Amino acid sequence: MTKDTNKANANESEIASHWREEELIYPSDEFANQANINDKNIKSNFTIDKFPECFKQYSDLITWDKEWDQILDSSNPPFYNWFVGGKLNASYNCVDRHLSDYADKAAIIWVSEQENEPDRVITYSELFVKVNEFATLLKEFCGLKPGDRVTLHMPMIPELPITMLACARLGVIHSQVFGGFSGTACGDRIIDSESNILITADSYNRNGKLLDHKVKADEAVEQASSNGTDVEKVLIWQRYPNKYSSSSPMIQGRDYSVNELLESYEGKTTPPESMSSDSPLFLMYTSGTTAKPKGIQHSTGGYLSYAAATSKYYQDIHPDDIYWCFADIGWITGHSYIVYGPLSIGATSVMYEGVPTFPDAGRPWRIAERLGVNIFHTAPTTIRMLRKAGPDEPAKYNYNFKHMTTVGEPIEPEVWRWYYEVVGRGKAVIVDTYWQTETGGFIGATLPGTEPMKPGSCGPGTLGIFPVILDENGNVIEPGSGSAGNICISNPWPGRMQTIWKDPERFINTYFKKYAKPESKDWRDWPYVTGDGATQSSDGYFRIVGRLDDVINVAGHRLGTKELESAALTVPSIGEAAAVPAIDDLKGRVPEMYVSLKPGYEKQTTIENDVKQAIATNIGPIARPAHVWVTTDLPKTSSGKIMRRVIASISNFVEVGDTTTLSNPEVVDKIKQQVQSAKIELNQVPKDIPQEIIDEIKRFGEDN
Ligand code: WTA
Q1: Ligand 1 pocket, 286 CB below 6 A?
Q2: How far away, in angstroms, is 362 Cα from ligand 1 center?
Q3: What does the pLDDT look like over 140-159, one tens digit per residue?
Q4: Is 226 helix (H, G, I), strand (E, B) or coil?
Q5: CB 262 within 8 A of CB 268
Q6: Which residue has better confidence, 639 or 211?
Q7: What does the alpha-carbon distance between residue 226 and residue 222 come to, in Å, rounded to a whole number?
Q8: CA separation (Å) from 290 to 39, 283, 547, 560, 562?
């Protein structure tokens, strides 16, 4: 590790001149008066001296089969148990308990990408029937029992939340893999979670095409079996019921059509398993600094309480609201804020199958108008895309938002302002929610009714969360100092992951080792390390500047450099590969690959495409690099480590910095000439890069 890595030294005024971040924008009285939290003193109930008891208010939103007797067991940091002794079922909380008040209310409104296909509206009583039928099938036909793992590789169809809730009903741990990921990536996750059942769908619509999805199941099963994990059954939901839409044949004795099997389970019910608060609810795989994805393990009681409370207080969902989170359930945002959060509080949750701009950039606003959506939740990438493709589209539609969320990446203030002024008509509040797969729910955001917004900043820590920025030596960087550092969370909270599936060592090393006092049994000595860089201004608001580890955030999707590199190395001629982020107007960052050939291989014209294809096959199309640069050699330290910050700087036209520690400094100019002249020709020179992003590029890959 080099010493000068995390010093994003831009001072506050420099940052402010780029980001104009000082301006505070207050919610309207109309919004504040109706907000679930409109008490300006609410934070006094969540001060550190009230921790952990303050989180009782969160657990009170849940129906417990058996009340808990201890709020937090922190005797073995960093492994914590929340609501100890409590028992509950997540599916009961999201479905059964709403039947008395909301039986005929829509739980899910699903919108097809095909504009002429009718919506599917599923009421809470219909959801009860569907979840029960499928849970009974899983129990009786698949023999699943509490604690078993099941891998889901499903697109955005209503059967996805039904499947998750059916698993939860049985205490079965679901691991949903993003539908856009490849079969190979799905297979790797099957292996790690030791699932013997795969649940998928035959097809789905994306950007006007019906994609064949079942073929990926065949690849996934093959990948798993090559590593000794046998998938016994593949259950396939049909996108168009009673019509099989895939070119891949059904394999007798392995593949089953769920729609056919369900005929034998009509009207069947199965009681919800009463699970202990700390039993795992699901796994969600995410990228890290090694090629192997981490199975982030979330609990039942802590996670569900946290998802429910943040949905109520930060999404400000009321019983009559129509709430639309435009994310994919294959990511944590969809788990917490399409499924578990909204449904646990009896909301109406809209889900949409396809891409934002199909068939045109007015689509989201037409959906919002037609369904009466008043809470809208999406990511900066989508906002940027809609702003570019149809800046004047929102004005053409008669929808009425009171609340809008942004999540997943830093949002540039210009983009924030378009969202606020054009999409929200200067009326809807914006909540910039900062969090991670690991955190289960929001950890940095403004309370929409009581705290002002600041473009480009997420706001203070959420209720009961105490973030702190630490420098490389573990010293606190004071608010208002203008320096960036590692944003950490000082205390435990109910939504935090329990561990990495089957890898407690990696859990400690990844999230705690940097600053923990390993002998201590006091949670105060175990700050949670997010892996993000941030600054804090004197009013306490945090601004996230980007990842400090080897992760590239592409359109809100986390990709590990090692994952990209090992995928590139599957091409036989590639000897070495390095992935770096390049700045992209729409997606925030896109990966670029630098590769060199093994001795004895000549450069073939197909090589760039081969590498792109290998990455798409091993991970998924979202990981496809913008460029593959074939170089004779890569810049390396004397110990042979590829210096990614050097090539990242070249890709982004940022000053390369110190190269004296390179064993082959002569390659730098050569690569620079090759890459930059090509980019100049393609008119791909980034303009006006803010200082903190320059800093991110300059330190890329240096922290590990
Ligand atoms: C980034 C998504 C700036 C951050 C919920 C984090 C953000 C990573 C924000 C987690 C935000 C998330 N502002 N950056 N509001 N929200 N990030 O696990 O780098 O897919 O560590 O979870 O996204 O991505 P993940």
Answers
A1: yes
A2: 27
A3: 999 999 999 999 999 999 99
A4: helix
A5: no
A6: 211
A7: 6
A8: 45, 18, 15, 7, 5
